[in-house]
Fold this sequence. Notes:
Helices cover 0% and strands 49% of the residues. Strands 2, 4, 5, 6, 9, 10 and 11 form a 7-stranded mixed beta sheet that branches. Strands 1-3-8-7 form a 4-stranded antiparallel beta sheet, with no helix packed on it. A hairpin with a 6-residue loop joins strand 4 and strand 5. It is an all-beta fold and 126 residues long. The model has no long low-confidence stretch (mean pLDDT 96). The protein has strands at residues 2-7, 10-13, 18-26, 33-39, 46-51, 59-60, 68-73, 78-83, 92-99, 115-116, 120-125.
Amino acid sequence: QVQLVESGGGLVQAGGSLRLSCVASGRTFNTYAMGWFRQAPGKDREFVIRVSWSGGRPCYAPFAKGRFTISRDNAKNMVFLQMNSLNVDDTAVYYCAADIFDPNRCTTVGSDYVYWGQGTQVTVSS
């Protein structure tokens, strides 16, 4: 079992930055990969970014490349999503998720992630 809790969401102006955090508990943190997804109103959930168990091998959605970065601190059981150059299209609820089956693959499929946080709202104003 893994419990995930996100924080750091809020309201930011277009062009600004925001850093989301996700703290995990339960299963040993450095044995599984972590990803971030988001869901905008009226849209399907979509993959954002992912990092392997060691903090390497990040993989990105096209819209995230060059603007978003992911990192993790295995000593603190935390993963972070740094978002820069935000625009209104980034407005969504952001979720962290755990892939406990393959800590090294790059998968963008939501069903490959077993555990999910409750989400944190990010709103970007124009």
